[in-house]
Write a structure and sequence with these properties.
- This protein folds into two domains: about 150 residues, Nitrogenase molybdenum iron protein domain (Rossmann fold); about 140 residues, Rossmann fold, CATH 3.40.50.
- The chain is about 40% helix and about 10% strand.
- It contains eleven helices and eight strands.
- Helix 2 packs across helix 6 and helix 6 packs antiparallel against helix 7.
- The termini are far apart.
- About 45% of the residues are buried.
- The structure holds zinc ion.
Length: about 350
């Protein structure tokens, strides 16, 4: 009790010292990050979403209201240069004084390298065993936990002047769109929980008066995620041996977290149009390797999925790494985990 009282006194004093009447203004890039920030800020304020639901973050232009929200922001939480190569330039011109927190750059984030080619593993028996991507990259999941700053042999992040040709030979329009690190890291619940803590810590720093609320909210958010993870594990248990192909290489964080590895992807991780050869290879994969489902995504070209499915017996369903149809807010993130699990399980 005494400790709590002391914390309140300190918080109140610091509140006066910084003379901050309003909570910090927070802007976030995509809906999952918005959800985590909304969870942390519950009861204090509401973050702004910069990239509207239903749009691909890989290429996007801010609308005037979104540019305004960015301009007004004190703190900006965003995933990474690899997800939104255009973003940092907008941030620097519109909100040069804002604190910019690139979540993928945090040591607490578990990062995986992008996978190569339309087929993720040559071993058909591997589908029901351990993480299919591991052998291909020569890493185990645990190797990735603290590998920041290491080069996966193909990184070309911001500031890296290496001129390595892209392994896929794809045309990404911008020089950064397909960085070596897979940016879809919000689909690992471990990362989402780490980001709740990180967001709470940064907000507590900026707004000490509300620090106890931010921290309590982060704790509650982590408990809600744990609950969703248990449900999804149960849901996916009966379909773990199924083989499936995804539209773009966006799901490996989810695949690894829930031990349900994809057989391959039609499109690259930046969702750029695949080459004709890659589409053909994806079709061969579906036709010849016991693939029972090909997932389409609402943001992208359904014609390509039809081409890949043509003449095969595989089924199809729509999954969405950004939860386009889900309601924004604190409960969005656990709902996204459940939504993906349900949609995946239903296709088999
Ligand atoms: Zn993507």
């Amino acid at each position: 009790m005494a400790r709590r009282f002391a914390a309140l006194v300190i918080a109140a004093t610091m509140g006066i010292a910084t003379a901050r009447a309003d909570p910090p203004r927070v802007a976030t890039d995509v809906a999952p990050v918005h959800s985590l920030a909304a969870q942390v800020m519950e009861g204090v304020g509401k973050p702004k979403l910069l990239i509207r639901q239903g749009a691909s973050p890989h290429g996007y232009s801010l609308r005037p209201s979104e540019a305004q929200a960015l301009q007004d922001a004190d703190l900006v939480f965003w995933v990474s240069e690899g997800l939104t190569p255009w973003f940092e330039r907008s941030r620097q011109s519109l909100a040069p004084d804002a604190q910019s927190i690139e979540l993928l750059a945090s040591d607490a984030t578990r990062v995986h390298a992008y996978r190569e080619g339309p087929r993720f593993s040559d071993d058909t028996t591997e589908a029901s065993s351990d993480h299919a991507g591991d052998d291909e990259f020569g890493h185990s999941e645990h190797d990735h936990r603290h590998d920041h700053g290491h080069d996966h042999g193909q990184s070309h992040g911001a500031g890296d002047q290496s001129q390595q040709p892209d392994a896929q030979g794809g045309d990404h329009g911008s020089g950064h769109a397909h960085s070596g690190k897979d940016p879809h890291a919000w689909l690992d619940p471990h990362n989402a929980k780490a980001w709740l803590d990180l967001i709470a810590a940064r907000l507590a720093e900026a707004d000490p008066a509300n620090a106890p609320t931010y921290k309590a909210n982060a704790r509650a958010g982590k408990a809600a995620i744990d609950e969703a993870v248990q449900e999804v594990d149960t849901l996916l248990e009966p379909v773990r041996a199924e083989r499936y192909v995804v539209f773009h290489d966006a799901y490996q964080y989810y695949e690894r977290a829930f031990d349900i590895p994809a057989a391959g992807a039609i499109s690259l991780g930046d969702a750029s149009d695949p080459s004709a050869a890659r589409v053909e290879a994806a079709r061969d994969l579906v036709a010849g390797r016991g693939v029972s489902c090909v997932y389409a995504e609402p943001q992208y070209n359904p014609g390509l999925v039809a081409t890949v499915l043509d003449g095969t017996k595989a089924g199809t369903a729509v999954i969405d790494p950004l939860g386009t149809e889900l309601e924004l807010g604190p409960s969005f993130y656990p709902a996204l985990l459940r939504d993906l699990g349900r949609r995946m399980a239903a296709c088999f």
